[in-house]
């Protein structure tokens, strides 16, 4: 199970959210939105040191009984959150980090599209394909 979300910096509303399976989608929305508070806490705790880094992988935000929640923040303060099933022990920190890099690269491609208005919901086949390939890798 993987949920990926990209939030706009000031308002923290979702630009893109995807979950597999879709039965517990509301539960995942709640988990992702509560994790944004943890992301903000980590960003404020790291302060200027975080701004100076090129890669802003936050790592494991918090584990629950069923899921592990990971976070990533871009230089422009866009937050990426992934929720992964806790029973998946094959995923290591390096794999999660590379998945966030792929998401970030795909997001950058969307931002470079002259027809995309920043802040709008993301409707992109290329981005969907990236997320789907990551979900297949995890599940």
UniProtKB/TrEMBL annotation:
Pfam families: Sedlin_N (PF04628). InterPro entries: Longin-like_dom_sf, Sedlin, TRAPPC2L. GO terms for cellular component: endoplasmic reticulum; Golgi apparatus; perinuclear region of cytoplasm. Keywords: Cytoplasm, Endoplasmic reticulum, ER-Golgi transport, Golgi apparatus, Transport. GO terms for biological process: endoplasmic reticulum to Golgi vesicle-mediated transport. It is found in: Cytoplasm, Perinuclear region; Endoplasmic reticulum; Golgi apparatus. The keyword Endoplasmic reticulum applies. Belongs to the TRAPP small subunits family. Sedlin subfamily. This is Trafficking protein particle complex subunit 2-like protein.
